[in-house]
Design brief:
3-stranded mixed beta sheet, Rossmann fold, globular, alpha+beta
Amino acid sequence: MGNELREDDSLGPFIIKELENDVSDCDNIVLINGGSAPENFTGLIKKENPSHIMIIDAAFMDSEPGTIKFINKNHIANVNASTHSMSLSFLIKYLEKDISFKFLFVGIEPLNMDFGENLSEKVLNSAKSLKNAIISAL
């Protein structure tokens, strides 16, 4: 998730682009750039019927910029991903009506959410570390 025109909020789409080449040979992985309106992709998600869903986004978590936190669905209400029109907890509950999946939210504390196209250095470094950790886990 993330708005590609809001500096550090673009980290989700950035990671998706970075992962595309690395997971292209994996038939069981689907990458979706949900942008700033992930609810527009619920039909696709339901069609894929995933066993796992991971959402990556910039999130205000009262941490230092660049901090990465892994949050399960029971604690998602404590995360503020303010640039999106639908709350993450509502999105998860909506999807759970039709599919069963394990969920993980990965938040990175942003430094700057102003209009612009570049990630701050700390967030960029965290995004690259997260991408490498995902590839290692796969």
